Amino acid sequence: MTIRLSALLLLLYALGFVLFGVSLDKPAGAERTDAIVVLTGGKGRLERGMAVLKQGRAKRLLVAGADPSVTRADLARRLGPGTLSTLRCCVDLGSESVDTRSNAEEARRWMRRRGYTSLRLVTSDWHMRRAAYEFHQDLPDARIVIDAVETHPSLFTLFAEYNKYLLRRAALWLDI
């Protein structure tokens, strides 16, 4: 009985991993939101958020989890000419958060200060499921548009992220 139960749990775990890997989120369409929240730590995230902001799909952008030493001028050098004015007018650098969970908390405080009720969440496709879960937990009344940056994650990256996602869900379920 124990062996069968263990085998069933292992099979469910493996099938869940396969489903996780083949159902990564995609970029969002042209839907407007009050805000854009970009989670730091991955290639193409900031560029995607800035492109959406420049297209007028949101009023303001928060870069959640930015290193406190990073300035708008640093980002302008990275993003190229013509971005400094947009960075100055419409981008906030949040340096309060250090992980996905605190990114959601930082975004919640920022959105409440500004009176926003909807956001476009920008992060890597492999990171989106856990990030969206955290944001839905912290901002249950907000309308969240998922806008994943497409990547080609390694098997190791997917495996690590799948386990983080499962552990976070279990921690919330067990109220830890």
Automatic annotation (TrEMBL):
The lineage of its organism: Bacteria, Pseudomonadati, Pseudomonadota, Alphaproteobacteria, Sphingomonadales. Gene3D superfamilies: HUPs. Residues 34-141 form the DUF218 domain. This is DUF218 domain-containing protein. PANTHER family: ENVELOPE BIOGENESIS FACTOR ELYC, INNER MEMBRANE PROTEIN, PROBABLE PERMEASE. It comes from Sphingomonas astaxanthinifaciens DSM 22298.
